[in-house]
Amino acid sequence: MEDQSIVSALLLGLVEGLTEFIPVSSTAHVLLAGHFLGFRSPGNTFAVLIQLGAILAILSVYAQKLVGIAVTLPSSARSRHFVLSILVAFLPAAVIGALAHGFIKSVLFETPALMCTVLILGGLVLLWIDRQALTPRYTDVMQYSLPLAFKIGLCQCVAMIPGVSRSGATIVGALLLGADKRSAAEFSFFLAMPTMVGAFTLDLYKNRNALNFDDTALIAIGFVAAFISALLVVKSLLNYVSKRGYAFFAWWRIAVGGLGLAALALGF
What we know:
Catalyzes the dephosphorylation of undecaprenyl diphosphate (UPP). Confers resistance to bacitracin. Its main location: membrane. 76% of the residues lie in helices and 0% in strands. It is an all-alpha fold. The chain has one domain (3-265). Helix 6 runs parallel beside helix 8 and helix 10 packs antiparallel against helix 11.
């Protein structure tokens, strides 16, 4: 295992953790960074498997709330409704992800120009949504209706195109459907748990015979880096978006997408 690969895995893990829960598309950032660093993994598994590190960050931050929900599940209709809403929102991605896994990994993950273009388009969407005078009807993530949760889950499926952003798709969808900024971001956090665990499990199963010791070691390095950097983001994002919105992330997407297209045009 080369030192250059170790450094690349560390950098990509940091990128994953810093971008997973903000609406800029962590997958596109990791894949584009890997492309320009010359970093490759069998079946592009690295970009998917290190996401579990970010999920552990969410679990640690929300551990008390999750334990409370689990403990009250048998006796609390509110807790049961919340868990069911997350499962309902997860269902579309579970079905479409399983059916389209091969196409996503072999085509979409291998098209840097598409990722850059989608980053720019997504940035324009965020700028538009940030300027809308939307009137929230849902402010408590525990009380999202099942139809609302399912519609947000459908929005999440668009993020199978790298560059869209899973958090961006679910947050924008929730905002347009009547959620406020804080609860939309929080629902996106909770929905990430089954979604990313499911993606991790499917990808690991599909590529179980392609990974060697060095691949596993690099994934472990990226995993730890993603966990640490994601902790920083999760603890601060809710307060930030509640007060300032998404304009900064929109311009970031546009800048990264534009620079990526320029670099590709120059042959990098």
